[in-house]
Specification:
The protein is mainly beta and 123 residues long. The chain is built from one helix and seven strands; from the N terminus they run βββββββα. It has one domain. It has a five-stranded mixed sheet with strand order 2-1-7-4-3, with no helix packed on it. Strands 5-6 form a two-stranded antiparallel sheet.
C-alpha cells in the first residue's frame, strides 16, 4: 500500500510504501480520520486521510459507508449533465492501493529530508 503525504505549508508531496505489518494501523479507517505519521517515519506528526483509490483505480467516496463498490449518479457542477460512476465506500480495506493524506499536526522531524527527491538510478 502506498501512502501519499502532502504538506500544505510548503506545497510538497511525497509517496512512501507502507510496510505490511503497519497496514493494519490504516485498514478500517475512514476518509477524514487521522492516523499516526510514524507509519511512514514521521514521528510526532498526525496525518488526516483525504482520500484513497483501490487496486482497480476506483476512488473512495466520503458518505458511502463500508468498503463496497457501487455505481452512483453524479451531477456535473456546470450544466445539467448526469453520469454514472463507480466508486468505493469511505472505509480503507485490503483492496486499497493508495491512501492520500495531509499533515494535520507537525512534529520535530526534518521535512526537507522526507520530501527530498529521490535520485533516479542510472540504467
Amino acid at each position: 500500500m502506498q501512502l501519499v503525504v502532502s504538506d500544505r505549508k510548503s506545497g510538497k508531496t511525497a509517496q512512501r510504501e507502507v510496510q505490511k505489518e503497519k497496514e493494519v494501523l490504516i485498514i478500517g479507517k475512514k476518509i477524514g480520520e487521522v492516523i499516526d505519521g510514524s507509519i511512514v517515519g514521521l514521528n510526532g506528526f498526525t496525518l488526516k486521510i483525504t482520500g484513497f483509490t483501490d487496486i482497480s483505480g476506483f476512488p473512495g467516496k466520503k458518505g458511502i459507508e463500508g468498503t463496497k463498490k457501487i455505481r452512483i449518479i453524479i451531477k456535473e457542477r456546470k450544466g445539467k449533465v448526469k453520469r454514472r460512476k463507480t466508486v468505493r465506500g469511505d472505509t480503507i480495506s485490503n483492496d486499497t492501493k493508495q491512501v492520500n493524506t495531509v499533515i494535520e499536526e507537525y512534529g520535530n522531524a526534518n521535512l526537507d529530508e522526507f520530501f527530498a527527491k529521490k535520485e533516479k538510478s542510472e540504467k
